[in-house]
Amino acid sequence: MELEGIIEDYLNGKLTEAEAVAFEQLRLNDPTVDHKVVAHKVFLDSLKDYASNLDLKNKMDYAHDQIDVDALSRKLGPHPSFIVNMWRKNKSAIAVAASFILLTIVTIYSIQQTTEQTGSYKQMSAELSKLKSSTNNLIRDVKSSQNSKVPVKPVKFGGTGFAISSNGYILTSYHVIEKSDTVYVQNNKGDLYKVDITYKDPINDIAILKIIDKKFSLGSLPYSLKKGKVGLGESVYTLGYPKDEVVLGIGYLSSQSGFNGDTLAYQLSLDVNPGNSGGPLLDNSGNVIGIINAKESYTDGATFAVKAKFLQEALSSIPQDSVVGRISSVRKSKLSKLEPSKQVSKIQDYVFMIKGYN
Asked: Same domain for 81 and 185?
């Protein structure tokens, strides 16, 4: 509550110069605080817009109440000659009145558009919930006669993850495994492995899984983690499991911030479906630049991904001596000189389907 009060004082210019400088430094150092400031500003702006629109509506209602429509109809309706004379004598006044009416129509249209945008924002929040629900209820049959430890009950939660080490650490979205008590991952060959959940970050929607099957093995990672800025319009692609086989999605970076100016995420022009959550977002050089986690249903192809620089905190949480070939230690992508189709061919071995049970 104290942080919310400071944020509101900061946005309203009530902090002293020294306090404002200190708070801006806190925003630079703490992405979570910066995210809260952006969200609170959007909330305050929405309240101001609503108050302004309501005030205009009340003024228009008052003006309408002052007009005696029946009296005007009786005077003007049955006397065409009177109307002609009135026009000749009052051209200027009528022109002003007509301009006022036109302005009123434009204003009403603007209010309607504003209302629609606000509604779109609310629908977006609901749609994000629907997206999670759709992902969490994605049912896939488990068909593995070789592993008797695999649960026989149906999969309740599904999504995508990708390797961040050669010894079994998998990165995915937190909401994919949030409600699961047992989680497995499946590679593109159909092999199924049980995992432990070793790290959870609900704020950034990130989770790290660890394959506990001693028979699991994986080659050194071909991609690297790009924590620097990605250019607007840069081509990107993702691999994920919206169905029972890996699917490629291609698009470009359309905004440096996510929904409502969220600085933790990118916005992409990229088509995804339930099940893509947790998939890697890569540039054409084979660098991981983010992780897919959401979309907006009312804007075609508007997809959101957590930025790669916020994945570093999750990677740092893993004990140094327990990881071989961690993604952050791969300084240069081995895919940079390969054409896209060959990049995809190598990467898909490191992308997994997430299967959650409860």
From this structure: no
pLDDT at 141: 37
The whole-angstrom separation of Cα 185 and Cα 48 is: 48
The pair of structure tokens assigned to 302 is 């508007």
Same domain, 58 and 190: no
Separation between Cα atoms, residue 230 and residue 235, nearest integer Å: 10
| 143-152 per-position pLDDT tens digit | 343 444 556 5
Residues 102 and 191 in one domain: no
240 DSSP β-pair partners: 247
Range of the domain at 107: 2-134
| Model pTM above 0.70 | no
Domains of the chain: total: 2
Q: What is the pLDDT of residues 218-259, one digit of tens each?
A: 888 888 888 788 888 899 999 999 888 899 999 999 888 887
For residue 115, pLDDT over 60 is answered with: no
Count Cβ atoms below 10 Å from residue 339 Cβ, excluding itself.
Answer: 10
- Left, alpha or beta for 89 (phi > 0: left; psi -120 to 50: alpha)? alpha
Question: CATH number for the domain including 283?
Answer: 2.40.10.120
Question: Is there a domain that residue 6 lies in?
Answer: yes
User: What does the pLDDT read at residue 109?
Assistant: 59
Give phi and psi for 148, each to the nearest 5: -75, -15
For residues 226 and 90, membership in a common domain is answered with: no
Calculate the dihedral angle through the C-alpha atoms of 332, 333, 337, 342, rounding to the nearest 10 degrees: 170
Angle 344-276-303 from CA coordinates, rounded to 5°: 100
